[in-house]
Amino acid sequence: MKILTIVITVGIIFLQGCATKNYGRQGILSSYEQESMTCREVELELAKMRGFIKYVNKESEFSGKDVLAILGDLGVGNYMEKNDAIESADNRMAALNALKERKQCPKNLSQQKSQ
User: Fold this and answer.
1) Which pLDDT belongs to residue 2?
2) CA-CA distances (angstroms) from residue 80 to 13, 45, 64, 65, 92?
3) CA distance 56 to 33
4) With contact defined as beta carbons under 8 Å apart, do 77 and 20 qualify?
5) Is 97 in contact with 46 (CB distance < 8 Å)?
6) Maximum Cα–Cα distance for the chain, whole Å?
7) Minimal CA–CA distance to 46: which of 109, 102, 3?
8) Higher pLDDT, 7 or 81
9) pLDDT tens-digit series, residues 30-62
10) CB–CB of 115/52 below 8 Å?
11) Distance between CA 70 and CA 16 in Å, rounded?
């Protein structure tokens, strides 16, 4: 009986660690990227950031993992993970938009090519 209790406790601890979602982070814009990126590459990176934010928002919707996370840390870990992931993308997007302005890129590069 004692062994069963230990096994269940260890299992819950392992499941709890797996319950916190992980979205990753977007890196800061390096000086090399700032110097070498073309306007088109900046637009592509901005599109990637928008896709990343959309992915994080979709994945952060309530799921079965959230039940385990709520039991472990009241869901605070998932909330913090989502906020940190979104913040990293927002910071990169701000740097990309500043770079776009500094390089005097057209407002919407994709519309100009289709005309």
Assistant:
1) 75
2) 20, 24, 18, 15, 18
3) 24
4) yes
5) yes
6) 75
7) 109
8) 81
9) 999 999 999 999 999 999 999 999 999 998 877
10) no
11) 9
Q: What is the token pair recorded at 55?
A: 């992915």
- Lookup: tokens for 78: 């998932």
Residues 19, 78: Cα–Cα separation, whole Å: 8
Q: Which residue is listed with tokens 């840390």?
A: 73
pLDDT for the residue numbered 115: 42
Cα-flanking dihedrals φ and ψ of residue 41, to 5°? Answer: -65, -35
In sequence order, the 6+-apart residues with CB closer than 8 A to the CB of 67 are 19
Whether the per-residue pLDDT at 16 is higher than 70: the answer is no
Statement: the pTM of the whole predicted model exceeds 0.85: no
